[in-house]
Amino acid sequence: MHAEEKLTYETWPAEPEKSTLEAKNKFLGFWLFLGGETVLFASLFATYLSLKDKVPNTSQPLAKDLFELPLTFVATMLLLTSSLTSVYAIYHMKNFAFKKMMVWLGLTALLGFGFLGLEVYEFNHYVHLGHKFTSSAFGSAFYTLVGFHGAHVAFGLAWCLSLMFRNAKRGLNLYNAPKFYVFSLYWHFIDVVWVFIFTVVYLMGMVG
Amino acid sequence: MSTYAQKKGFGATLWDFLTTVDHKKIAILYLIAGGFFFLIGGIEAVFIRIQLAVPNNDFVSAGAFNEIITMHGTTMIFLAAMPLVFAFMNAVMPLQIGARDVAFPYVNALGFWLFFFGGIFLNLSWFLGGAPDAGWTSYASLAIHSKGHGVDFYVLGLQISGLGTLIGGINFLVTIINMRAPGMTYMRMPLFTWTTFVTSALILFAFPPLTVGLVLMMFDRLFGANFFEVAQGGNTVIWEHLFWIFGHPEVYILILPAFGIFSEIFAMFSRKRLFGYSSMVFATVLIGFLGFMVWAHHMFTTGLGPVANAIFAVATMAIGVPTGIKIFNWLFTMWGGSVKFTTPMHYAFAFIPTFVMGGVTGIMLASAAADYQYHDTYFVVAHFHYVIVGGVVLALLAGTHLYWPKMFGTMLNETMGKITFWTFFIGFHMTFFIQHFLGLWGMPRRVFTYLPGQGFETSNMISSIGAAFMSVGVIVLLINIIVTSVKNVRVGNDPWGDGRTLEWSIPSPPPFYNFKQLPLVRGLDAYWIEKMEGKKEMTPAEPLGDIHMPNSSFLPFTTSLGLFIAAFGAMYHVDDKGWALPVLFIGLLVTFGSMLLRSVKDDHGFHIHKEELMNEDDNKGVKA
Amino acid sequence: MKRLANWRLFSLFAIVALVLSGCGKPYLSTLTPAGEVADIQYDLMGLSTIIMVGVIIVVMLVFVIVFFRFRRKDDRIPKQVEGSHKLEIIWTVIPILLLLVLAVPTVSATFKLADVKTMDDKNSKAVVVNVRSHLYWWDFEYPKQKIVTSQELVVPTDEKVYFSLKSMDVKHSFWIPAVGGKLDTNTDNINKFWLEFDAEKSNEAGNLFYGKCAELCGPSHALMDFKVKAMSKDDFNAWVKDMQSVKAPEKAQTALAQQGQDIFNKSCIGCHAVTPENKMPETARIAPNLSNFGERSRVAGILDHNKEEVKNWIRNPETYKPGNTMTGKYPQMTEDQLNALAEYLMGLKVQD
Predict the structure, then answer these.
(1) Membrane spanning segments where (chain B) (predicted)?
(2) Which of A65, C125, C195, C348 has its CA 20 to 30 A from that of B364?
């Protein structure tokens, strides 16, 4: 099958994300890329854990003074739900239902923006409590780890929107189907990373 | 295609190379850029040896010396050895697996330009206030303490070129997994392809820790973070861990492709199948795997405690086993063979004792308690030069002679090749053998001078004379390249006459689509099997048909250029320069803009039609 | 290709020549071990060298046979051998056994050298030295004896001396090659280890060992040398007593020295202490303690110990140790002032 072919519901393959050589390459290459990203985040986690609560003086807040469950719980829910909506989007992509896919992708993006908004609010809040990027090693490590994740979310949103706008008028084909699929992989990955951040940074942070 | 290219003017050729996504042209770009940086690193090495030839020398100042050793190490590892390895991977690996191209031609080009701009950025430090001076390991306390922008150049330059290496690694992995010709099973892949595969996996998992380490240091130096500021709760040992979690696999990233090149050479010029092929593959994978478990042997004296030191000592020794397997397999590949001592074979043959020497000192270093004596002395300098020069550089020189006809369609001169070999090889042992003893006699490494009366004088002088020999070897190689290019005697498919793998079954240089028809692979050493049955070329696995090829693109260049520009902005914004932040944003805009453009602009590539391929056949008949 | 064999032969001669030329200087070389730690390490080196030379001999044997027997003489195609399980098992198992032979003593030595339990024992009489490394000089504090000296470590022989290491600026590494391997002085934490100085071997080395910084620490990394005076326990105790008895700065003996002391008190004492008491916290000891300067063997760790070099050093330390922290911290001195200072400094002695 060629990427440019015009397809119908009947001729649409079961696995559009892997039906051309280019698509197969993209699929595999992206999985490998995520493997590299895993090591990247693992390194950031290790750095965070060894610098957690390392502050120059006692006047600075520690993890247990900062983190509150309600805020991070809502953020977690937003991101987890966005992962679910992206699953629906891909489900419709596989069924050649372009409009429905776009709707679910739109929802995914909205939830993503919600998450990012909460994160901005949260960071702002911490800064006012004296927990800054430049104030301690703990601060540097916290903002680097969580901020790296936030930057990934922001990049994902830009990616999602540019995919949606670019393909808004022309519907699905085997050239752009793998692109949507790979985006959803990325989005799930960000979600998984967040689950670890939620556990390691926030839950373990609140315990002390 | 090549004759067509020759007719083009200089501007058109330049544009062709700036926009190419052809793995063979990218290989040439890597070879030229890597070769250029190799010369720069070599000049730095010569300066080091001049400075140390006599005690209390003042050829260069103490500060300049530290810049030179830092840049020598960084350049040789990141900007010379790795790109040169990538050059051969690009030139040969897709041909060896019978592929028309790599999986991601665009990413391949992007990888090159990222490396190139990173390398240029790093080297511009010489002209912009001084090079980095904290050693290639750039240990955090010293790097944070270092004045000026030198270390910033290191951090940003390596970050950019590291990204290029990472995506290059992903590209090779996917290529090998998805693009093999019919019949090319994993256990029929030539060993160089196998080592490319394992190396790429190492790159994928080893470069992210470096990326993180560099980010932390960038944040500390440029954006006020406190990762390594002890007074603010920071910890400098984190850098050591991150650096060596990357740094040790990096050694294998370099040496495994070298093993691959030598494996090809031993089999070819002994006219024998590689002895113990499956155990060679197994050993390669095992070395790659163990390579991640031993990083702390670089930190035996950091004070991690006896438990960590003992574990890492034993793990390190374990790597000696698969390496030993390889040495004996190579020896027994030659055993019973018909060994022809061509220039590449000179290098391969000399590699064995040289590398064994580097290997055994590696085992000595693995003995943690004894390492307290060796660590950070000239013994270590001698050891890793035996491994990296005696292994990697010998392989790169061998590969240059071996694959030159495949890449350029003309053979390097054999006599001059052997002159290069002998001067380089003798010079190498003269320079580095004695350094083992200097270390044991108490000379620390990275010293800009030494006082008289400590027994270091004679040996240092011998070492410096050796460096001169090595320089002569490199100069002869350059002359050889020029002479060969001017003469430009064309050669056929299999100029060495002993080719075993697929790359020797197609013209030199290959047409831009590599294989007109994908070959059918019937076993290990696919081309050799056909030759033994009296055939001249591979049996095709498909009928002649249209070939799909990717379009050229200028975007890899602009994407990389954007980061290059942004790096200046990031670096100078600490000096409160008004233009710095705008430059940072413009640079990032160029990069992300290029990425967006790439994303939204459909690129379906183009097709070479069957008829054109048939016409080319006829034309070839006329030209020949 | 004959030349290859000749070259091998030549390098063999070179090795022999080197061995005959000696094992380096007895006060500096790791090959002239002068204490228990260096002995352990020397034995490990020996063991690993023997094993490794064995490996090299086997490889070279096959190598040479291949070289002479299997050169291409005709156009025949050799038999395509796949491999040999028997051989492959041999060269997998034997190296494993060899490595075990090396691994066992390595592990045991590693634990032995890291055994510093005595340091935590409050009642122990063992000598402990707090080593603090600074950009290009070394500070040695004896916490039990409550004294501080710099640049020249003084230790008793024939007993374990314990070290607690830390850096005050960038990472350095503390190394006395002839007496034992190095340990880094980190900025983040304290590292601990022990060394033992053999009396007889110390004597052979002139009782003065060379110490080095082994971690790149800036421009003058190469010049961050220190010296170690090893002496019998009695002499050491006497030295400690002498040091402890200096409560006030040594009185200048001559008029010129008196003049020098005045200059010193005006321009130098802000950084350099001239009493050996460890009254100041370690972070405040920002320059070498000069209490017993007159009894040391080097100026600034590297220059000959005489008045001329003292004057040279003070005149322009930057030329001798680029990047040092002393340059520019004091006013320019005239020749007369330098003479006076040198006179005063060389007279700073604690042992009478």
Answers:
(1) 27-48, 68-92, 104-128, 153-179, 191-219, 242-262, 274-295, 307-332, 344-366, 378-398, 419-441, 461-483, 554-573, 579-597
(2) C195
* Same-domain pairing of C52 and C168: yes
Does the pLDDT at position B4 exceed 50?
A: no
pLDDT digits (tens, 9 = 90+) for C189-233: 999 999 999 999 999 999 999 999 999 999 999 999 999 999 999
Domains parsed from chain A with CATH numbers: 16-51+99-207 (1.20.120.80)
**Do C162 and C34 reside in the same domain of the chain?**
yes
Q: Which CATH architecture has domain B2-488?
A: Up-down Bundle (1.20)
C1 part of a folded domain: no
Separation CA A26–CA B193 (nearest Å): 21
* Predicted local confidence at residue B101, as pLDDT: 92
Distance of CA B447 to the CA centre of its chain: 27
Residue C250 lies in a domain: no
CA neighbor of B252 nearest in space, from B299, B188, B322, B314: B322
Radius of gyration in angstroms for the set of CA atoms belonging to chain C, rounded to a whole number: 27
**Cα–Cα dist B153/B140, whole Å:** 15
- Inter-chain contact C170–B278, Cβ cutoff 8 Å? no
Q: Range of C287's domain?
A: 255-346
pLDDT digits (tens, 9 = 90+) for B166-204: 999 999 999 999 999 999 999 999 999 999 999 999 999
DSSP C327-343: TTSS----HHHHHHHHH
Sequence spans of domains, chain B = 2-488
Q: Do chains C and B touch (3 or more CB pairs under 8 A)?
A: yes
Q: What's C183's DSSP letter?
A: E
Domain tally, chain C: 2
Same domain assignment for residues C214 and C337: no
pLDDT digits (tens, 9 = 90+) for C301-332: 999 999 999 999 999 999 999 999 999 999 99
Band the pLDDT of B600: cuts 50, 70, 90: confident
Indicate which CATH number applies to the domain containing C310. 2.60.40.420
- d(CA B341, nearest CA chain A) in Å: 41
What pLDDT score was predicted for residue B3?
43
Spatial neighbors of C82 by CB under 8 A, at least 6 apart, are B273, B275, B276, B277
- Note the pLDDT tens digit of each residue in B329-380: 999 999 999 999 999 999 999 999 999 999 999 999 999 999 999 999 999 9
- Amino acid B515 reads F
User: Tell me, what DSSP letter sits at residue B441?
Assistant: T
Same domain, C155 and C274: no
Q: Give the pLDDT mean for B306-312.
A: 95
Q: Give residue-wise pLDDT tens across range B220-268.
A: 999 999 999 999 999 999 999 999 999 999 999 999 999 999 999 999 9
Q: How far is CA B400 from the centre of its chain?
A: 13
- Last residue of some domain: C191, C224, C244? C244
Dihedral pair phi/psi, residue C299, rounded to 5°:
-95, 130
> Considering the domain boundaries, does residue C283 fall inside one?
yes
Q: What are phi and psi of B178, to 5 degrees?
A: -105, -20
Give the C-alpha separation, B356 to B327, whole Å: 8
A37/B contact by beta carbon, under 8 A: yes
DSSP 3-state of C152:
strand
Tokens standing for residue A46: 């290790």
Q: What is the mean pLDDT of chain A?
A: 92
Chains C and A are in contact, defined as 3 or more C-beta pairs closer than 8 angstroms? no
C240 and C303 within one domain: no
Q: Cα separations (Å) of B181 from A18, B494, B519?
A: 19, 20, 6
Tell me how many residue pairs between chain B and chain C have CB atoms under 8 A apart: 300
All chains having 3 or more CB pairs closer than 8 angstroms to chain C? B
Which residues of B fall within a CB distance of 8 Å from C171?
139, 141-142, 236
Cβ contact, residue pair C25, B371, below 8 Å: no
Is residue C204 domain-shared with residue C266, that is, in the same domain?
no
d(CA C206, CA C202): 6
Whether residue C229 is contained in a domain is answered as yes
